[in-house]
Design brief:
Layout (H helix, E strand, L loop, with lengths): L18 H20 L1 H8 L3 H50 L4 H29 L4 H46 L27 H30 L4 H12 L1 H16 L1 H15 L8 H19 L2 H7 L7 H29 L2 H22 L23
Length: 408
């Protein structure tokens, strides 16, 4: 911290001042992204996109969010988080409108780029605010942010499937753009946090010299190898197995449902037992379980296995951002979370493109075996780098200065 390691953030009520706008808007933007994912198979059918073309568009969205995260995150450490939230939601509206009028691959790529930039702009400031507003309840609040974020993915596919059945993919994107317009006034209720700020303008300087932070990034990358594979392959495999757009939408909703339900509880447990143990443990089990995606037959069994793995995701979802938060001081939180977002997006982009190509050349079983292997390697590196110097178990304390003891 800029003053001392024992400083604490101001008292917070019900999750911290000004957190609700961040929760709602990120949830709405996640729903918009989920609608795009849900309609990938429809776009392949209606507009003739290839698997490689879809992978390119997904990768472009990840890449745009990557750039936005690196450019915008340091500004959140200087008190600009509410402004970033407003810019993000406006860009999100523009991205969905472009998708609504798209009629070829390059229009779709452009819309994904704008929407990706929106996500990368709003995300780091939201995470910083949630982390520093109420450190005593860090795990609970990170879990709530995750619940709203993933909750958009739970609701979005079902709504998108219904709207697509009524008026096609264009109506779907128009409606989700309208949803973000309705949430736009909420962004003016967001307030800057009162925690220590990066008054020296350090930005990202020196962060890669923090061994534990680099190790946390490897853990994050392991999860987003899985996310990239999911976005590029899972829905297309459902379509290949004969699922309709409605079944895909309902299936994606049901498969993701355990994550928002369990995420707040998972955050509390991660704070109680240590974010390092919780993150590496849950992702290790997940990396083994996903191989069954390619083993089980039919649509129903794939959805059942996905729901079971979502339970693991729900419990572990908040722990990786907490691991990153634990590695840096208060005034560097947005920059660290921004770098984490960049790692997520770069990993997701590479994974989406690579696994979409692999899927086109082989089958889904080979994709999930390779995904599992890459995750295991990244988790092993992360486990070594985040290991405490004394190798003794450490339980986290609750004041902000002790958030750094979330390692064990």
């Amino acid at each position: 911290m800029s003053r001392s390691e024992t400083d604490t953030a101001p008292p917070a009520a019900d999750g911290g001042p000004g957190l609700l706008p961040y929760f709602l808007i990120l949830g709405g933007m996640s729903a918009g992204l989920a609608s795009i994912m849900t309609l990938l198979a429809e776009l392949r059918s209606e507009l003739g996109f290839s698997e490689a073309g879809i992978g390119l568009a997904i990768g472009a969205g990840f890449g745009a969010a990557f750039v936005a995260t690196l450019v915008m995150a340091p500004h959140a450490d200087r008190g600009k988080a509410p402004t970033l939230l407003r810019v993000g939601i406006v860009l999100g509206i523009c991205g969905l409108l472009i998708l609504a009028i798209s009629d070829n691959l390059w229009h779709f790529v452009a819309g994904r780029i704008v929407f990706g930039f929106a996500l990368g702009t709003a995300g780091p400031g939201a995470r910083r605010t949630v982390i520093v507003a109420d450190p005593d309840n860090l795990g609970r609040n990170m879990g709530r942010l995750g619940a709203w974020d993933v909750g958009g993915f739970v609701i979005g596919p079902l709504v998108a499937a219904v709207l697509n059945g009524v008026g096609g993919f264009r109506l779907t994107f128009w409606v989700f753009a309208g949803l973000l317009v309705l949430l736009l006034p909420m962004s003016w209720r967001a307030r800057p946090d009162t925690a220590a700020r990066d008054t020296e303008g350090l930005g990202f300087r020196g962060l890669f010299r923090i061994r534990r932070l680099v190790g946390a990034f490897f853990v994050v990358a392991a999860y987003f190898v899985f996310i990239g594979a999911m976005e590029a392959v899972w829905i297309l495999e459902l379509d290949t197995r004969g699922a309709s757009s409605m079944v895909i939408g309902i299936g994606l909703t049901m498969a993701a449902l355990p994550i928002p339900l369990l995420s707040p509880w998972g955050g509390v447990l991660a704070q109680r037992y240590g974010a390092r143990r919780w993150a590496i443990g849950s992702l290790s089990v997940l990396s083994l379980a996903i191989v069954f995606y390619g083993i089980v037959p039919g649509v129903l069994w794939l959805l059942i296995v996905t729901m079971l793995t979502s339970v693991l995701e729900g419990f572990g979802f908040p722990s990786a951002p907490m691991l990153v938060a634990a590695a840096v001081t208060e005034e560097r939180q947005a920059s660290a979370q921004g770098l984490m977002g960049a790692v997520e997006l770069a990993t997701g982009a590479v994974a989406a493109i690579a696994f979409s190509v692999l899927y086109g050349a082989t089958d889904d079983l080979m994709v999930w075996i390779c995904t599992s292997a890459v995750m295991v390697v990244l988790l092993a590196i992360g486990a070594v780098l985040t290991r405490p110097p004394d190798r003794q178990p450490v339980r986290p304390g609750v004041p902000f200065g002790l958030i750094r003891r979330l390692f064990e």
